[in-house]
Amino acid sequence: MTTTRPTVAILGAGRIGRAMALLLQRTGDYDLLVADRDAASLAALRPIGLATAVVHDDASVQAAIQGCFAVLNALPFHRAVGVATLCAHAGVHYFDLTEDVASTQAIRALGRTARSVLMPQCGLAPGFIGIVGHDLARRFDALHDLRMRVGALPRYPQGALRYNLTWSTEGLINEYCNPCEAIVGGAPTFVPALGGLETFALDGVEYEAFNTSGGLGTLTETLAGRARQVDYKSIRYPGHCAILRLLLNDLRLRERRDLLKDILEAAIPTTEQDVVVVFASASGLSGGRLVEHAYSAHIVGTQVDGMALSAIQRTTAAGICAALDLVVHGRLPQAGFIGQEQVALADFLGNRFGTAYAPQAQGAGEAARPA
After folding, report:
1. Cα–Cα 20 to 30 A to 315, which of 95, 190, 235, 307?
2. Is the separation of the CB atoms in 70 and 6 below 8 Å?
């Protein structure tokens, strides 16, 4: 464990970046610098005592991270590789939230020679769901199926989409358009986004779920040859997928993502009144018996030092802050690429930030407790 108070640079002063800063600031254990290209967003943080810096290119980012212990990257996904490269060269620990598969693969390659930690995909999905999935998977002598489902949803849905924007629109479109990693018939493969539509009920509420990209993180590599079926799907209220297929496939807006972003942001309001739904289940052989374990959680927003955090802000920021904390306290490797499945679920839930995920776990006749 480090003996001095680490300096942490948070890149991005948007909703998630602000949430990270609030959670870390209240501990008193970190010196913080928040950097963004938008001076107005930074100005809103100064009254709560946060140091800020304007960054607009790689040179200014490099200057901001110089001498830092770690960087938490909350910039759009297309900035992940560039920032991770700067951190690797500077020997600064790097954490991000990217759902982009290609970016994660590039960062993994950087990690082979890095003298600092490179840990992408530290949010909700990818992120926490991978920790849960791996914990469930390792309970079996022979794992058959692992299914992971996550949704960030409005508590009071309106309109045909029954959805509100709760995080990055660019990231959302990325998930809806890119191929999705999975294990099918024991072999890693790709399945189409918006495919695999299913409906289910959880705690009396009807949902649908369908393939989206990036949620599995590196689990397909970790579980290749060990599982028959592994998949990740986003949870929405019924009817959402059909409209997305119309927009992306029939109207071919997947070929015009900038236009789709403008349409969504002009037509769909944001909301602070959201709920994060997490559900994962696994089945296989344990002690010669066919058994199933499951994990579920519903998380809503909260107040932090008088400031409201939505459910998606709370869970996403908690994930990346917990990852930082675990590295600081020596619970994770101190250099190289770290995948989410290297985090023990018990360590995560026992962390002061990880407690935001209130588990409601239940298995086949027994509690599916963190082991």
Report:
1. 190
2. yes
Q: What is the pLDDT of residue 3?
A: 57
Categorise residue 255: left if φ over 0, alpha if ψ from -120 to 50, beta otherwise: alpha
Taking CA 262 as the corner, what is the angle to CA 156 and CA 35, rounded to the nearest 5 degrees?
Answer: 85
Quote the CA–CA distance of 69 and 3 in Å, as a whole number: 12
CA neighbor of 343 nearest in space, from 332, 334, 351, 352: 332
Q: Which of 39-48, 117-126, 160-169, 170-179 has the highest mean pLDDT?
A: 117-126
Q: Is the pTM of this model over 0.85?
A: yes
Q: Is the pLDDT of residue 361 over 80?
A: no
- Least-confidence region, from 22-36, 260-274, 348-362: 348-362
Lowest mean pLDDT among 25-34, 46-55, 312-321: 46-55
CA distance 42 to 210: 37
To the nearest 10°, report the CA torsion of 58, 62, 68, 72.
Answer: 0
Q: Is 1 exposed, middle or buried (0-12, 13-18, 19+ CB in 10 A)?
A: exposed
* Average of per-residue pLDDT across 68-83: 94
Other residues' Cβ atoms within 10 Å of the Cβ of residue 95 = 28
Single-letter amino acid code for the residue at 27 = T
Candidates 200, 225, 189; CA nearest to 281 is 200
Asked if residues 138 and 284 have their Cβ atoms less than 8 Å apart, the reply is no
Sequence-distant (6+) residues with CB within 8 A of 226 are 137, 143
| CA-based nearest residue to 232, from 245, 243, 218, 242 | 218
Q: Give 19's DSSP letter.
A: H
For all residues of the chain together, what is the average pLDDT?
91
One-letter amino acid at 172 equals L
